[in-house]
Amino acid sequence: MRFLTSLSLLFAFAVSALALTITTPKEDDDVDFSKPYTVRWRSVPNDSSNFTITLVNTNGHNVNKDVATEVNGDEGEYRIDAVSGVPLGDGYQFNIRSTARNNQGILAQSQRFNVTKVARRTTNDDKNDSDNSTQTSSSDDSTETNAAVGSLGGMVGSSVIAGVVGFAVLLAL
């Protein structure tokens, strides 16, 4: 009985280790978007092969900007061109979002990092910003809602792992 419980816990840990994980940037890294920046991740063969990388910040800036589309997940890294049109600040994250028709949603989130520099704006940025960014609202309610939604992605991964562990323990009993 004890062996089955240990085996179940080991299986749950192994499943969580196999998920798509963003390895760069790390927590509290200072990121300079005035020049190209490389995002890195770890994946396994069953992860989505193509996805979008989105820059988000729900820490008062309400940023939601696709910085790369149709990224080949097998590469393990992607060099993003210089980014403009976002405010300097902390609390930024990259979301890796699936573009598969049958599996849309956030696959991975980076740790929170700081944006210390951005590229100069171009005329294309104005169009891209209106297409990909949420407009800042003066209402505190919208900031709280966006922060809650941003936190949801991180909680989903933890909930899945907890569910697998719980199910494995029940099977062992």
Topology:
Layout: H1 2-17, E1 21-24, E2 30-33, E3 37-42, E4 50-57, E5 63-72, E6 77-80, E7 89-98, E8 105-109, E9 113-118, H2 123-132, H3 140-172
Parallel strand pairs: 2-9
Antiparallel strand pairs: 1-3, 3-6, 4-5, 4-7, 7-8, 7-9
Briefly characterize the structure:
With 173 residues, this protein is an alpha+beta fold. The chain has three helices and nine strands, in the order αβββββββββαα.
Characterization of this structure:
- The chain has a domain at 20-139: Immunoglobulin-like (Sandwich).
- The protein has helices at residues 2-17, 123-132, 140-172; strands at 21-24, 30-33, 37-42, 50-57, 63-72, 77-80, 89-98, 105-109, 113-118.
- Strand 4 and strand 5 form a beta hairpin.
- It has 173 residues and is of the alpha+beta class.
- It is built from 3 helices and 9 strands.
- 21% of the residues are buried.
- The longest helix has 33 residues, at 140-172.
- The strands form 2 sheets. Strands 2, 4, 5, 7, 8 and 9 form a 6-stranded mixed beta sheet that branches. Strands 1-3-6 form a 3-stranded antiparallel beta sheet, with no helix packed on it.
- Residues 24-115 form the Yeast cell wall synthesis Kre9/Knh1-like N-terminal domain.
- Pfam families: Kre9_KNH.
- The chain crosses the membrane at residues 147-172.
- Residues 120-145 are annotated as: Disordered.
